[in-house]
Amino acid sequence: MGAVMGTFSSLQTKQRRPSKDKIEDELEMTMVCHRPEGLEQLEAQTNFTKRELQVLYRGFKNECPSGVVNEDTFKQIYAQFFPHGALPCLEGSPCVEFLPPSPPLPFCLVDASTYAHYLFNAFDTTQTGSVKFEDFVTALSILLRGTVHEKLRWTFNLYDINKDGYINKEEMMDIVKAIYDMMGKYTYPVLKEDTPRQHVDVFFQKMDKNKDGIVTLDEFLESCQEDDNIMRSLQLFQNVM
Amino acid sequence: MAAGLATWLPFARAAAVGWLPLAQQPLPPAPGVKASRGDEVLVVNVSGRRFETWKNTLDRYPDTLLGSSEKEFFYDADSGEYFFDRDPDMFRHVLNFYRTGRLHCPRQECIQAFDEELAFYGLVPELVGDCCLEEYRDRKKENAERLAEDEEAEQTGDGPALPAGSSLRQRLWRAFENPHTSTAALVFYYVTGFFIAVSVIANVVETIPCRGSARRSSREQPCGERFPQAFFCMDTACVLIFTGEYLLRLFAAPSRCRFLRSVMSLIDVVAILPYYIGLLVPKNDDVSGAFVTLRVFRVFRIFKFSRHSQGLRILGYTLKSCASELGFLLFSLTMAIIIFATVMFYAEKGTNKTNFTSIPAAFWYTIVTMTTLGYGDMVPSTIAGKIFGSICSLSGVLVIALPVPVIVSNFSRIYHQNQRADKRRAQQKVRLARIRLAKSGTTNAFLQYKQNGGLEDSGSGEEQALCVRNRSAFEQQHHHLLHCLEKTTCHEFTDELTFSEALGAVSLGGRTSRSTSVSSQPTRPGSLLSSCCPRRAKRRAIRLANSTASVSRGSMQELDMLAGLHRSPAPQSRSSLNAKPHDSLDLNCDSRDFVAAIISIPTPPANTPDESQPSSPGGGGRASSTLRNSSLGTPCLFPETVKISSL
After folding, report:
1. Percent of chain B with pLDDT over 90
2. Which residue of B has its CA nearest to A145?
3. The pLDDT of residue A91
4. Are B152 and B124 in contact, with CB atoms under 8 Å apart?
5. Where along chain A do the CATH 1.10.238.10 domains lie?
6. Which family would the database say this protein is a member of (chain B) (predicted)?
7. Within the 316-355 window of chain B, which residues sit less than 8 Å (CB to CB) from chain A?
8. Sequence-ordered list of residues with C-beta below 8 angstroms from that of B404, at least 6 positions apart, any chain
9. Which of A95, A202, A236 has its CB closest to that of B2?
10. How many CB atoms lie within 10 A of CB B253?
């Protein structure tokens, strides 16, 4: 009888060992810390004042004590901004506070993770798989305090998923679909199947000057600068800080 | 994570630039946000300890006290900080919650204090982080259990008496549940207990073989068959009593469905049913076999004793709460039995004339061996059998020993809880008395103050100045308030002694040295007083010293009692108190209504009565020399009933 019990218990411990290793690995990873460059350097490189950088860093460090954001965290952060954010709430995270008080949607209806993925790639300029504070602040600097040119260039970079310098219809389709996914199912008017496609067609009509099916940076810049709406909207997020 | 939502908002808004080229309609203008000064450091002063933090940190949780504009109420403009008069040690944890997003529970603090702090700062207890959540819940549950016991102890037992208008049903139910409340209930309790015992003993004795005196002793009969009439009569009597009791309980139960489903009622039913079935079933041989088995159920009557014994109830409760451990024990034992029985059977199969005829037959051997009984009626003879037999016996010891400590610790916890509850109940009365004594101190202060002529406007300057100065502003205002009340109601506050003197001059012997002229009014309540509290009043009168400081212990107790509230620990019979609650206060006033007021500062433990009947008869027509207050010299007749709701 005791022998039987003994064998049972040993079997179980064998199963548990791999997960224990995994936990140790995770612990090691979080111990890795990244420290940003000095404050003066960052101030010189970006368009933020020292105070603003301080506030930004304090918030960043509080949320990510290790100094880096990986993609999953990034996705989770971004998802929380949209109603009934797509990713399931983690145990113990008080994210329910920030969800509007309405019946909870099933999780697959709103998906901000695709767009967050593209965003992450746009932020992670060095393609390391993690966003450091410098990357974060650099991108924010461009988006909030940069020139029109810089902003548009950044946006082009965002749309260009494979970073080859051109936007083709498939990439645009992905982006537009990702944006529509963030809206979720409950929209007014009801989202139809081919709405993204129509949207992409309109976009390409406007942007693609030589109608060769791809949009280059110059075409993009030129078309955007012609459009008054876009120009005006670019000033919207100027003083977000 | 959510704490950082505010932190990440700029990033999210910046990322919206990516939508711009795709926008087919113009985007809405940005909200005009006041230019914030970046970040500022707030100073929060909690009982002298200064905590400093960024304003952003506190703004993370806008639905709490510190995160919302509610903290402005605590802002001290002179020092430029937010002052809270709370525990600084606990505040540390609250502030850390803002900083880290996790609320930790301090291990050395009382869980109730922690809860109160959380409630003050607007944090819900669900925010306690995972690391501390389990412990927090356990401690809170333990506390809640203890408090529930307290409340229960108050309600049951010597709890408040039934309202006067309670129906027969309620009274009956109460008598059943708490036999100590009335003598009739107690008698009933013991009678049923006696009959349970009689019934059980009769069942037992029935089966003893009786030796017939003059008969041939070739065949011994059990007593039950020798004296069938006697036993039948006894059985009938017992069953009648049990049936009557059951029906009465059913009638009195506040919720009949719940009563029918309760364990005790089921036991009752099972105890009396065999008898009735026996009556109905005709006496033919086929059925009487089954009927005989039914009689076994009569032994269940012994479980009725659990109403009479608390220990039995504890045992039952323990077993119920350890159901999972017991289940585990049973399961593992069954597994072991089957395994070993199989092994033993096949080991002994070869031997001829073996006892191990089948696996189920080997079950018996396994059980006997595992529980180390070892009857020896079945013994293995092969070597393999013996080896496995010894393994069986060793493992039996182990398996049975494993869940036992859990059950034991459970039992011990429940038992101690019960003991604690009993002790607390016993101490409760003493505690209440002491609290009331403390409260009565304040009453006495007022009375003392009155006696010293403080209420008089004119008085010898120095004398008055002295005693006036000795009082704090609070006391002054409090006394003024009481004085206002006195004036309003034309009644006066007085102490127990003068009051009792006024009421029942004759029967209360042992007067003190106070020279108060006794009221000459023939009052009915005098008889009440004499019947209710002669001993107590006498005791008090004798104990009174000249020092007026503690002149009357628990004057409120007296007043309470007279008001018909039965909270005094005096050992009178409650029925007498019940009898005359209201008409006793005819006093001098002809007013039948109570004049209620608070004459004590509410002290923390909420068990104490806050109302009492201050209507003193002294105001009317008693020329008492103790009260120099002449404004009420003339009897203030009470043309209309004066009723003041308690403040």
Report:
1. 14
2. B14
3. 39
4. no
5. 39-82+108-146, 151-240
6. Belongs to the potassium channel family. D (Shal) (TC 1.A.1.2) subfamily. Kv4.1/KCND1 sub-subfamily.
7. 336, 339-340
8. none
9. A95
10. 19
Q: How far apart are CA B332 and CA A233, in angstroms?
A: 73
Token pair in block for residue B292: 């005989």
**Among B179, B181, B148, CA closest to B309:** B179
CA B321, B325, B331, B337 torsion: positive or negative?
negative
Amino acid letter for position B507: S
Q: What is the pTM (predicted TM-score) of this model?
A: 0.49
A151-240 in CATH: which number? 1.10.238.10
Which residues in chain A are contacts of B401 at CB distance < 8 A? none
Q: Which residues of chain A have pLDDT under 70?
A: 1-33, 83-110, 239-241
Which of residues B239 and B533 earns the better pLDDT score? B239
- In angstroms, the CA B170 to CA A239 distance is 73
In the stretch 68-107 of chain A, residues with CB closer than 8 A to chain B read 76-78, 80-81, 90-95, 97-98
- How do residues B348-375 score in pLDDT, each as one tens digit? 988 888 889 999 999 999 999 999 999 9
Token pair belonging to B254: 């506040």
DSSP code string of B491-546: -----HHHHHHHH-TTT-----S---PPP----THHHHHHHHSHHHHHHHHHH--S
Does position B644 have pLDDT exceeding 50, yes or no? no
CA quadruple B179, B183, B186, B192: dihedral sign: negative
What pLDDT does residue B52 have? 92
Of all residues in chain A, the one with the smallest CA distance to B16 is: A237
Rounded Cα distance, B562 and B36, in Å = 67
Q: Does A138 lie at the interface with B, CB-CB under 8 angstroms?
A: no
Residues 6+ apart with CB under 8 A from A204: A169, A172, A213, A215
Measured in angstroms, the CA of A15 and the nearest CA of chain B are apart by: 23
Cβ contacts (< 8 Å) between A220 and chain B: which residues?
21
Q: Do A51 and B38 touch (CB under 8 A)?
A: yes
The answer to whether the CB atoms of A237 and B30 lie below 8 A apart is: yes
pLDDT digits (tens, 9 = 90+) for B440-498: 776 677 777 777 665 554 445 555 555 555 666 767 777 777 777 777 776 777 666 66
Q: Do A179 and B63 touch (CB under 8 A)?
A: no
Q: Which two tokens stand for residue B467?
A: 């005693």
What does the block give as tokens for B141? Answer: 């549950």
What fold, for A39-82+108-146?
Recoverin; domain 1 (1.10.238)
Domains of chain B, earliest start first: 41-155 (3.30.710.10), 178-211+220-308 (1.20.120.350), 315-430 (1.10.287.70)
* pLDDT tens-digit series, residues B200-222: 898 888 888 877 655 555 567 77
ipTM > 0.90 (yes/no): no
Span B112-116, mean pLDDT? Answer: 90
Helices (H), A126-194: 133-145, 148-159, 169-183
